[in-house]
């Protein structure tokens, strides 16, 4: 009997793990239904690009995913960092306004903090991220951070713990769907999502990054 109970507990633990994807290509409602039926329970389209524009394809993907019956639909902002870009707050505002105007929403808005054109000044980078977070929260939007140890180290410094109260989407292409190789940084001791595989042929013909939630 103890063995049976143990096996049932283990089965429940395993079945609670969830698979998800993030991507940038356009996806139809029918394809999202295929993705859902293939066992993927969450999706994260890009909704703002590093060129400083709303990703209208991504906004439509959010809408299509919800129309397909997916309820865990997030979005991510890839910040624009040149001097010609909108302010940090206005980038978040543009993304959230576009989603609202499209008649849809994201469960969590993730801020993609990875090495691409960030200045060397940690203080200004911290202020930029803080402004993005503040704007999202002013909208009542749940917000999280996408990053990893080395990106965080280079962009804001490992001693910066200012966002550790937010959820962490951890990027580490180690090919393993667990958190076993996670090394604490930025005040986070455990991530919420693990992006464990980069650009690959995903479900239903969509090119994706693979993600895991235990």
Automatic annotation (TrEMBL):
Domain of life: Eukaryota
Keyword Signal in annotation: yes
Signal peptide range in chain numbering: 1-16
Gene Ontology terms for molecular function: lysozyme activity
Pfam families per the UniProt record, alphabetical: Glyco_hydro_25 (PF01183)
PANTHER family, alphabetized: LYSOZYME PROTEIN, LYSOZYME-RELATED
Protein name as catalogued: Uncharacterized protein
Source organism of the structure: Caenorhabditis remanei (Caenorhabditis vulgaris)
